[in-house]
Amino acid sequence: MSHSPHNLAEAAEAAQASAYADPDEPQSPNVPSSKGQTIVGAGVLLVAGALAVGALQIPGDSGYGGVGPNFLPWVCAIVLGICGAMLIWEAQTGGFRFAADPGGNAKADILPFVWVSAGLLINAALIGSVGFIISCTICYVLATQGLRRAALQPTASSVSTWVKDVITGLLISAPVFWMFTKFLAINLPGLTETGWL
Question: Global pTM?
Fold first, then answer.
């Protein structure tokens, strides 16, 4: 039994229409309802508005090529505003199109979030006293531990994993520090005045 392309297209459209028959009904347990999707779109619009307010605070004097420093913030604000409006429109007309099941846990995993947050906060607190390299290495190690624990890696707490993460953090943060201090002549917080540590 053969189906014409026209009939297949109609069947696909009917299936999609039935999936969005009730805009308040989520597509799956992990896909938010149209109300939640509308809130996401409104949040994007709020961010766009905040960017626009920030762009108003930046002087618009034209620089090289006739473009001022407020050009990029305005572009971001406008694009985000369009995206937010489109998200709200989709949410109100049947839900986000072709929204896939996001997967993952239905509830947030707090412990990995705490690890990553601790890395960021400790980095901000220590960067002035222990320098860029050490504080960023600590941030990397703690954030990586959070991601490893979120992925349920069995070796996350092993000594070898911690050592590997410390070495990797140093290999990332030290060259970045040297590039800024030695090649770009931009001062970053360090332990010494040499620009090497």
Answer: 0.53
